[in-house]
Design a protein that fits this description.
Layout lengths: L2 H20 L6 H8 L3 H8 L2 H25 L5 H18 L5 H9 L5 H26 L9 H21 L5 H16 L2
């Protein structure tokens, strides 16, 4: 990366942090200027509009999710180990990487009824994520770890439900047992899916 690309990536990393805490609608060039120590006009030259900032922040978050969750998951041996890695790494992403929790869950809640390019990008990202879960579950079927008749799309739906449930219990309800309950529910799903 060039120095300019490095600078923009660092700015977008700050934007990802802000959006995870206050949402995409709460992310502003002024707030980003305050956090980065840059001028509003300097940041405006990078992004031109709030929507462009939101879209680039979302793209940067996907890059980071790929680095933190997707690549390490795909480097894990196929089968149930890979399924567990995907879930564990997502939990790490949602609890340790971002101060405000999973930016994609936050965005999905924020934009579920709000049409436009940010929603479209979020929907595409969620489709890609669901497809990844289906694929990883499919490898567990082909490796003989999961039942041959497992509905991998239903499995992916249930994993997503656990992820959203964890976000709700931990972020909104401040349930001290949110992580424990989520892991128990995931173990039950794995047991129900086993060959």
């Amino acid at each position: 990366m060039s120095k300019g690309q490095d600078t923009k990536a660092a700015i977008l990393d700050d934007a990802v942090g802000i959006a995870s805490e206050v949402g995409f609608t709460g992310l502003t060039i002024g707030q980003l200027a305050e956090r980065t120590g840059m001028s509003k006009s300097g940041l405006f030259a990078h992004f031109r509009s709030k929507e462009a900032l939101q879209l680039e922040t979302l793209a940067r978050a996907r890059e980071r999710l790929t680095d933190v969750v997707v690549r390490p998951t795909l480097a894990t041996p196929r089968g149930v180990k890979r399924v567990r890695a995907l879930f564990d790494l997502w939990l790490y992403w949602a609890t340790e990487v971002l101060e405000g929790g999973c930016i994609f869950v936050t965005g999905a809640i924020e934009y579920d009824d709000r049409p436009g390019p940010v929603r479209d990008a979020l929907v595409q990202g969620e489709r890609d994520w669901t497809e990844l879960i289906v694929t990883v579950a499919g490898t567990a079927v082909s490796e003989g770890d999961f039942r041959a008749d497992l509905d991998t799309e239903q499995f992916a739906f249930q994993v997503q439900a656990l992820m959203y449930g964890f976000h709700h219990a931990s972020r909104l309800m401040h349930d001290p047992k949110a992580l424990e309950r989520t892991r128990v529910a995931f173990d039950q799903l794995i047991a129900a899916s086993a060959a």
